[in-house]
Fold:
Amino acid sequence: MRSFLTENLTIKLAQVSNEEHMRTFSIRKVLGSGSSCIAYRAVDSGSHLPIVIKECFPHNSAVRNSDSELAWNSTEDEHRAKERFRAAFEIQREIQSTNETMNSLTHLIDSLYSGNNTLYTVSDMQNAKTYNDTTDSSLQEICITAKAIAQAINKYHALGFLHLDIKPQNILILPETRELVKLLDFDSTIKKADAANHKVTVSYTHEYAAPELLQGKRDKLCEATDVYSLGAVIFSRIFDRTPSALDRGTFSDWDLDSVTLFKRLSNKAKRLTRELLRKTLSASIKGRYQNAAELIAVLDELIEESHPKRRYLVSTYAPSRNYFTGRGKELNEIHAAFTSGKRAVFLYGMGGIGKTELALHYVEQYKVQYDTVLLGRYSDSLDSLFKSPEIISIENDTEGKTSLDSIRGLVDDRTLLIIDNFDGESDSLLDKVLSLKCNLLSLIAMRLKQGAITLLMRKHNGII
Structure:
């Protein structure tokens, strides 16, 4: 069993390329460990700056004695471990040597050192904390951090590498901003060209590893393998647990309404979150985003939508409690009209035949098509209707008064507007209502004459 260097222990290391160059460090805490090494937060005794020290110490290959030195099980184990550690060091040096990545994604490695009968690397820390030592104040903060990680991983991929061990312990968060992260690596990074080469050792953390990694399908490792791990990190920050097999299904769902982070966020933010989790955590590689760039595009949209002060419309319809059966033909016709591109559907008939129930049942049957459903009853004018809290409720509203113009920028093709008891074919705001970029389901009162209904339908490209 591996033992760690103890807190406040002072160690003296010699640079491998120049053994006369010695440095002294004070160990502060364990940051994390992988199958082949251990990472520590430490302080340079000379500069007093915080640094990261990575120690070559594989599982089941050596033990630590009372002087902190490693006693290797065999010369072969020692040679194999140190060769792998050197190879990982060279990979990190290659990654950080490019101008594009020098200051953006890797913890800058100083050099390779020896001591305690093993090897070490020393890297800058920049007062950063590992992600598992930080908290998130909002969903937006999680998404901003995830975007920074995705951008870093995207650069790894562009350089021909796979990280394969993305987890909170491997992510350094800078105190100045969540828009820039540093990645630790416990010798997991490999060249994509070597993914199927079984002579190249692959390491990962079970809780954050994609199914193809867990199943040893080396020929399947790809950019989407890292996408899964990042999805698992996002999932763990939202639910305070890592994903299980039940979370990897095509139709997996989660009760986001019970999660504090989603209080007062829009249905659109919840929908985008569900889509993101399904397309990162899918057991099927084809079911995931195929690269980090695709994930970044979704995160951009979610960052905007999850802003704590974002204005959005709150649904104002309530599901019907009445028994409803039949009317399948009419429901299909309404759905077909909207999916064909029509924006307006008019339901016409005498009072009491079930127009309102039909509309409410349409919402229940096709609610996955909409983020927001607004329902109001027409009385004397559309102007008064859109000033009423009965139909318009705006979260984070700073204007104080609602109107048709106040919602114009808040509706989209996933908004359904239902106007019950409408009989204002000459209402001055009708053209403006029908120009909204949302679907309109209008329940027309019998007192409106058939000729007016037909004219209304033809003028506004709707159906009866």
In short: Confidence is low (pLDDT under 50) at residues 460-464. The radius of gyration is 30 Å. The longest strand covers residues 18-33. The CA atoms of residues 322 and 357 lie 8 Å apart.
